[in-house]
Protein 1
Amino acid sequence: MKKILLIEDDLIMRENISELIELTGYQVEVAENGMVGVEKTKTFLPDLIICDVMMPELDGYGVLYILSQKPETATIPFIFLTAKTEKEDLRKGMNLGADDYLFKPFESTELITAIESRLKKNDLLKQQYSSGSDGVHEFLNQAKKVVSLKDIKEKSYAFSFSPKEYIYKDGEHVHFVYYIEKGSVKTYRYSDDGKEYITSVYNEGQFFGFQPIFEERTYDEIAESLEATELTKISKEDFLTLVYENREVAQQFMKIISETLSSKEQDLMLMAYSSVRKRVSKKLQELLADEDEITLLRTDLAKLTGTTKESLTRTLTEFKNSKIIKTEGKKIILVDRKKLQKMDLIW
């Protein structure tokens, strides 16, 4: 049975609403003001909160703000009850993260419909999605059902890129968020003396290009495909609608991209503290995760591992002598995956 917390200071209104909700089949807990409501949320852990705006002790905006700061309560669907004379404050509540508004007086069917709608949407977006291609597409399809996108056409577009083809350049305005269906992409900048240095490498199943959208800036690096690559593009407008129009959508998306961010941090830590041998081993394991061979310029691999071309060449020679890999021109062929993994233990 779903649990609903009703926070309302008017006794008659509180009793009438709670009786209606209980008759509909929900478990109800009531609170006579905002302070009590916040405390009861911690112990009752409702599936949905219905809250009056104007109350003594702590008003509805204060309740929503406090609950939004705690991970365990931040995504509980929140419906405000308010008088029509307070309509001008609607934007304030929505900006704080309210999911819906009901203006007093309202019909019983309006309240029940609002409750059922919000609970259904919340259940849809509580699903866990993997960071792989299937998980991402399932997430986008579910998000379309939840978020109001009547005026938005298809959300994603598929594009193919040849090896070493530009995806975007520094200084360009942002139009898309990118998801890698197949292949890999590097992002890089040029130093003052004209040398290229790689900032990140993104592989199949990862998002990239979304940071400038949140920071409202142009790209500050170049993105280029390392091999034949297939990307799904999500338009900037659709991406922002997905993220900002529903808190649960935003939370699910952040869970998916957190793997990308975590991987990037791990690369930086590895580059800072590991030996050349270990860095090369880690990067080869990553690049050869689903393949037995890759084609990559030695200069690019050196940049990816944060070492010089000479040091990389010596390490690859060592790996060849140990019969871990073999090379054919630009091609690196995996011979013994277990031996390559054991190189992680050598500092």
Protein 2
Amino acid sequence: MGPDEWASALETGRKLFAGPCDFVAAVPTIDRLPPITLTEVAFAGRSNVGKSSLVNALTGRNTLARTSNTPGRTQQLNFFLLAEKLLLVDMPGYGYAEVPKTEAARWANVIDLYLRGRSTLRRVCLLIDARHGVKKNDLDSMDWLDQRAVPYQIIMTKSDKLKQKDRDDLLKATSDVTRRRPAAHPEIIVTSAETGEGIATLRAVLGQFAVG
């Protein structure tokens, strides 16, 4: 993408995410999914990785998606309608050991069915906490997405917590992990909900999926 095209994408993303964004549904079971209409982008990752904070930062709203310091707080698929053009899906986090096994299994089943069967899902933003890097359950998620050909892109969160050298090392290590993965997008976006780093870039990337 050339400079003019990228500038246009940035402006399109800015306008899209400046538009109205409304809560649509909290889906605890697969039979409660909203009708398939608009393109969808989902946000996945470990518990407490910052999914809800990132959704709030993207939309410029502090309380759109509920945030908490308690891992495992998001226990449903939460759908948000952005400017009547795109659906954002905040998914339950994975990897939190304190959640009862039966509940974790139920979440996993709902997520599995959603990701495999949602024809309008265009991309999964797989969030990785920059302080910790890629963990085993992140690799398991990548394996699952690769095997089912579900497109995903790595989004690093909480970048403000790292020094520059640590960031460079993290990016290299993460790129090494994703380089040969068939469903992974090659670009890794580094973000911070606190400082706003990478937010405009991610808006531009996701804006290409908006309808109309």
Protein 3
Amino acid sequence: MRTDDLIKALDADARSKTMPLRSAWWIAAGAAAVIAAVVFLLTIGPRPDFMAAAHTMRFLSKFVFTIVLAISAFALVRALSTPGASTGRAAMGMIAAPLLVAAAVILELFAVPSADWGTRLVGTNMMICMTFIPLIGIGPLAIFLWMLRYGAPTRPVLAGAVAGLLAGGLAATFYAAHCFDDSPLFVASWYTIAIGALAALGALGGRLFVRW
């Protein structure tokens, strides 16, 4: 069977599902958010000074990064789950979150004395961050991998990795409400590593469970 024929067959299979793929993805995203919220609230919960911190730019900038990452990854993984769908524009959107973090890091380097850079980078919650972002994100990742099986991705490893980025962005959004380290230097390092772990796990899941 030629590649074009295979893509058409997969696309026809995806369209024949009882629930349209577009609607199923939105339901899956809602379920994933609920699961992440429950795990977050039952484990660490928001920081005690959440309301006061919400008035500071560094605290709010964490959510800008994580939410933009989640939105862009959601758009791309939906496109990847549909055979023959255009992914170029959604793939370009994935650049937004890293650019925002890079800009915030540059501003931080100008605003903070160089003697404090190391302290801001290491922070005080490194291990908590590395533990709880994957913990909060593992449930959503399982849902997104299941959704990829519901669709018909022609690049399952890539789709799984993007599903991991989506789960990581969602988990990091909740974790940011707890994290006391608001410096972009901390976010750029430890948040990225924790989210990257979920992306790697998603790629493995795509290879093992989503491939055709």
Protein 4
Amino acid sequence: MRAIKKPLFMKQKLMRKVIYSLIPIVIASVYFFGLRALVLMVWVVGIGTATEWFFEKRYNKPISEAVIVTCMLYTLTLPPSTPFWIAAVGIMFGIIFGKEVFGGFGRNVFNPALVARCFVYVCFPEPLTIHWVKSATGFPGGFGVWLTESIDAVSQSTPMLIFRETSQTESFARLFIGNIPGSLGETSALLIILAAIYLIYTKSASWQTMIGVFMGYLLMSTTLYILGASTIPNPLFGLLSGGLLFGTVFMATDPISSPMTVEGKWIYGVLIGIVTVIIRGYALFAGGIMFAILIGNTFAPLIDEGVKIYKSSRKKVTA
């Protein structure tokens, strides 16, 4: 008999919806920062897919479509001028140590895209925190150049870095539209919000987690801001900058590394929001959201277990 050939990719409708939601953000990244953004995306997807294939072929298992999502999310958190070799090293580390060491798709404790991003952030701080480029405006924007003009001065850096250095804030209009220096996919609040609406409407992401993050962030940020903490910016400014929206919508809602219970998602989201403010205001890292989500990933199983124990105890009391 003729052997049945297994498909190269595992069909995952949920992952495809996430990819669809990311397409406008990818197009915008090219418009804002140049054609290099698209080439970098293709490069990372190729390296990440090949890395997962190398591990899965031993068990004759197909590649998960989730790896494409991981690669896209990771690339969109990188500065536009990130060297190709650093991007490749990061995604390989994320796939191997954030996913494969736990047994592959569905078994990972941490979000692989964030594992990759944190790895390159810590190991290669200069290209990941210092070298930024200007955002294009007008037509054809970045579609007519390889990479937009470089920025050297701190006073023209990303909004969060500028605030940490000078306490100055960017206009809300520019933060909302996205024509500001920053990582490839984290600048446009408008597109990220539209993606969130699509994901919630198609039931592809947890709205409880998203709202939980915003609640935790606004509660902690507003409290410290009112108390006069100099390292805490205006809560609305902080909400629209530093990758908070992107991390909340696409990273914190990862169904594998976040809690399964509804109550757990609320607790998990609030925890991430609070920790983000603390890291931003009192640690070395301007963003904070990626480290906060990884901390949330660590506690996700415990949160679910705690919720189940609480529910079980309540049933015994009412019985």
